[in-house]
Amino acid sequence: MPRAAVGRGLRVLRSTPWLPVCGTSGLATALLVGAALAPHQPFVPFAAVIAVAACGGAAAYLLDEDTAPVLDATPTSRGVRTCWRLLPLAVPVTASLAGLAALDRADSSGRWLQLVPVALGSMAAGTGLAAALRRSSSTPGDLAAAVTLVGVLLVVAVDPLRRWAPAVPLGEGPGVGRSMLMWTAVVVVSGCAVALFSRDPVHH
Amino acid sequence: MSTVVLEQPRLVPSPAASVRQLGVIEAKRYATHPLFVVGALMCAGLSIGLPGPDELDYAVIPAFFLGVLGLVVSARLTRSTDTSAPVLDAAPVPITRRTAALCLACAVPAVTALLIALLHRATLLADPIADFRYGTFGGLDRQVLTLVLPVVYAAGGPLLGVVVGRWLRFPGAPLLTVVALLAWSATLAYLPQSGSSSSALLRLLHVSAPYTAFAFSDGDNVHPITVVTTMPGAPLWFAVWAVALCGLAVCAALWRGASATVRTSVARAGLVLVAVAAIALALAATTGHDVNHETDSSGRTTVVRGDA
User: Fold this and answer.
1) H helix runs in B51-208, sequence order
2) I want to staple A126 with a disulfide (CB 3.0 to 4.6 A). Which of A148, B86, B107, B157 is the partner?
3) B111 lies in a domain?
4) Between the CA of residue B272 and those of A21, B155, B240, B276, what are the distances in Å?
5) Which residues have C-beta within 8 Å of that of residue B269, sequence separation ≥ 6?
6) How many alpha carbons lie under 13 Å from residue A154 in its C-beta half-sphere?
């Protein structure tokens, strides 16, 4: 990759809203580590699901660009900026993986690592929603994060497809595999949404 | 010869009248916000006869859809005028009055929650549930749990949103607040479920959350409920604690940018509310049951001794 492109990319990265991304990821990790310290308390499943949904909310801030109308007029396309902007997704991904691993280590019977697809699906949904909302606002993070957080918690609480695939793939049974498949589908669809909505706007 | 008709000189509205007028405007903005509309519709949908949480945990639905979403809505409404701050600051309406109007607009989710809770009660009257599902709670506590607390939660979230909008200026502040609030409530709400509920500290922690649960059951989406466990704590005093927290949120919101005179009044009110909150919290933890009580489908109640 040319040096100039890397320099441009790093400048794009510098404008990432780090506070909501790192702050929310940090809270999620704290919640999971707290659950790992008392793995048999009744709050642990709630804490795990809230942490996973919070990581989705954190991911929704990655595409916030205060000056998007100006940036759209520069030679750095929206697609390139989006690619660079997705690199900090490593923060919530690492936070959720580390927290779930700690929880699983503290209580291996809980099979907490099976929540990894939910975490990835939640983050993908947050990013996809933010990408879609970027058409109408250059800073869709606040709204996308709230909708993602509430949406993931709602799906887990109502569990609309529980007969076929439970929303939380914990435990054993054929539903677990289907649930993981469902969350993988969420990741794929959200990835397509990010690609679709990251094309440069066409001005007629 | 011509007649000149002079308009009656319009008097400058009193502070109370201007707060009322601004409150109506903010209430309209709140009521038409898409997140509020979606939240209210989902709350109403899940309150009418659909399988939901245990009856005594019904308040979780308005708390989630009107309280949590309301926090985001009111934070966004509060921050939405930031770009016009230079113009608004030049107007003869101080920021305190604008904040008071935003707090008044939080009556919109509160009234919505009341209407939905009444609708929920109506569906239960039409198709009553077994009495054991209310655990050991009497008539007043049942009304507090199913009618008062949903309204308090629905108003409390948006009031906290006004505080967030006024005080926290960084992006992501509403999300961080929501996650912190959910973490706080989820950690403490079911603390006595583990059985060690005879500890005074645990009882205090259990009722110190802004949202807490007072009962749980053995049922789920698949299995019917056969045993309802009533947890320690007094719902009535918890409601007073929650209302005091709402009052403190109003004080915190009004403090921002207030004049010295207003701050003196707000500080006095805040001190009274802190005292009320402390007393209510202590009473919520010490009155009511000391330990969990299980009520089975035949109506028989047994005391569950904790391990602490």
Assistant:
1) 60-62, 69-79, 85-90, 95-105, 107-126, 139-143, 149-167, 173-189, 200-207
2) A148
3) yes
4) 38, 20, 13, 6
5) B247, B251
6) 18
| Cβ neighbours of B70 in A, within 8 Å | none
| Digit-coded pLDDT (tens) for B204-226 | 999 999 999 888 888 776 677 88
Does B186 contact A43 at a Cβ distance shorter than 8 Å?
Answer: yes
- Chain B contacts of A47, Cβ < 8 Å? 183, 186-187
B76·A143 Cβ contact <8 A: yes
Cβ-Cβ contacts under 8 Å, A30 against chain B: 183
The rounded percent of chain A whose pLDDT value lies above 90 is 50
Shortest CA distance from A53: residue in chain B: B179
Closest partner CB to A47 (pick from B72, B187, B191): B187
* Chain B residue numbers touching A27 (CB-CB < 8 A): 176, 179-180, 183
Q: pLDDT tens digit string along A16-56?
A: 889 999 999 999 999 999 999 988 888 899 999 999 999 99
Please give the pLDDT value at position A25.
95
Residues 6 or more apart from B128 whose CB is under 8 A from it? none
Instruction: Categorize the per-residue pLDDT at A117 as very low, low, confident or very high, splitting at 50, 70 and 90.
Output: very high
Segments forming the whole domain that contains residue B236: 15-304
Of A21, A47, A150, nearest to B183 by CB-CB distance is A47
pTM: 0.88
Mean pLDDT of chain B: 87
B7 in a domain, yes or no?
no
Q: Which residue has the tokens 């005879």?
A: B198
Predicted complex ipTM exceeds 0.95: no
Is B239 a member of any domain?
yes
User: Does residue B10 form part of some domain?
Assistant: no
pLDDT digits (tens, 9 = 90+) for B78-133: 998 877 777 777 777 788 999 999 999 999 999 999 999 999 888 888 888 888 88
For residue A2, the distance in angstroms to the closest alpha carbon of chain B comes to 33
Tokens of A194: 């990010």
Q: Which residue has the higher pLDDT, B293 or B150?
A: B150
